[in-house]
Design a protein that fits this description.
By secondary structure, the chain is an alpha/beta fold. Helix content is 49%, strand content 11%. The protein folds into three domains: 290 residues, Alpha-Beta Barrel (7-stranded beta/alpha barrel); 84 residues; 42 residues.
Length: 438
């Protein structure tokens, strides 16, 4: 039996916040650390995105259609490419034109909206998929939620939006003795196919590749393919889902990671019983074996595979709840600047920076944390959220009192402008009068 190898990469970069002090609230409405965002994006583009995309394009050409791969790129990553590394967008466009690369759906801001507000969740997906279609000409058919977050309910929502399938973690607490190397269906709506990540084989590449203390170090393509070949014959698909930064950033080029990828792809393409397949090909060509029951949300983070990396302490929950309390009013908001900041405020990274967990394995999306402590991250975020709320109140008041305050605020601002103009006119007239006297 031929086994499908489904290779998928997550691509995400957040808009990092600058140090935003209490005294900035109401006075300064710009929240971003442009220097860090620019510097980090350029570094990762040069070390990972550009060389990895070049290699994948070359492999697709050489393999003559046998090599296929999938990407999930967040809207915020695409915006940062456009700002700081536009050549990365061009390199992804070249990949799109090959017909061997599938772009998946995802939340625009890599947000946790699926856990809080179905309407905001749908809007995040709509924004993302419009951007993907506009740039790459593909309408995504498979969904990959932020950090692989999945539950029966979330899967049913995704099925209702018309997606064919969804990717998630092959977590032990969900699968038990079952293997992730089969196609499953959602427990509520079986029309949605579920692809389960083989976390051991994925993490062998993503995290253990350059670990000299690992018993399997060094990892070669032949050794890895040997593991694939020793899997049960009836197992049909091996889902290798990784963060793209594993190539060149987490595992540096000097570790041999690019050579490994090149050798792995070349040798798999030569094996008659192994083939690369995109997620859409997997869900269309394989028969599901059973439903997978996930009553509580899972993710691909840490050993627990749960939500505690983002919502595990009171600081995170407080910030999360305060943010989404503004959701109904944001649905009535038409201010472009507020909408953009609203999307950036939803990035899951901000909640991760507040984490107090000390993971034993330190895995999955360990973004560079710009804050010295979880409390510092929380205070910074809440200061920004306070300023954002002031701006939102001026546009979409919360109640009658807020509405009256907003009206009075506008009257004061208009009078301030008139006073400034009158003062300027007075100074000009005084200056003119002095010149005439002389």
């Amino acid at each position: 039996m031929t086994k499908s190898v489904c290779l998928f990469f997550q691509v995400h970069q957040p808009f990092r916040h600058r140090r935003y002090r209490f005294f900035d609230i109401g006075n300064d409405h710009y929240y971003y650390d442009d220097y860090s965002n620019d510097t980090i994006m350029r570094k990762i583009a040069d070390k990972c995105y550009l060389p990895a995309n070049k290699l994948i394009l070359d492999l697709i050409d050489r393999m003559e259609g046998k090599f296929k791969v999938a990407f999930s790129i967040t809207g915020t990553a695409l915006e940062q490419f456009e700002l700081y590394a536009p050549e990365v967008i061009d390199s992804f466009k070249k990949l799109a034109k090959t017909g061997c690369v599938e772009f998946l759906s995802e939340t625009y801001s890599h947000s946790l909206s699926s856990l809080k507000n179905p309407e905001i969740f749908k809007e995040q997906i709509r924004l993302h998929d419009e951007r993907i279609f506009g740039l790459f000409g593909q309408k995504p058919r498979i969904f990959r939620n932020t950090e692989m977050i999945y539950s029966d309910e979330i899967g049913a929502e995704i099925a209702g939006m018309g997606f064919l399938g969804m990717l998630t973690e092959g977590a032990k607490q969900v699968l038990g003795w079952k293997s992730p190397n089969f196609l499953y269906v959602n427990a509520i709506n079986p029309r949605l196919k579920v692809l389960m990540r083989n976390f051991k084989l994925s993490d062998d590449i993503a995290f253990r590749f350059s670990n000299g203390n690992w018993s399997e170090h060094p990892l070669t393509a032949d050794k890895f393919i040997g593991w694939l070949e020793r899997l049960e014959e009836k197992e049909e698909v091996v889902n290798l889902f990784l963060s793209y930064e594993s190539f060149g950033e987490r595992q540096v080029a000097e570790s041999g990671i690019f050579n490994f990828l090149e050798s792995f792809v070349t040798k798999v393409s030569e094996k008659p019983h192994l083939r690369f397949a995109t997620p859409t090909q997997v869900v269309e060509q394989l028969q599901p074996v059973s439903a997978v029951h996930v009553p509580e949300a899972i993710s691909w983070a840490d050993e627990e595979r749960d939500l505690t990396a983002w919502l595990g302490n009171n600081l995170q929950k407080e910030a999360f709840n305060k943010l989404y309390e503004l959701g109904k009013r944001m649905q009535r908001c038409t201010d472009v600047g507020l909408i953009k900041d609203w999307n950036y405020l939803q990035e899951s990274d901000h909640f991760y920076y507040m984490s107090t967990k000390h993971s034993s394995d330190g895995r999955v999306n360990r973004s560079e944390n710009p804050f010295d402590s979880p409390y510092g991250a929380f205070i910074n975020y809440m200061n920004i959220l306070s300023d954002f709320k002031i701006r939102l109140n001026a546009v979409v008041p919360e109640n009658e009192t807020e509405s009256e305050i907003a009206i009075l605020q506008r009257i004061i601002e208009e009078k301030d402008e008139k006073l400034k103009k009158l003062e300027a006119d007075l100074r000009r007239l005084q200056k003119t009068g002095k010149q005439k006297r002389h």
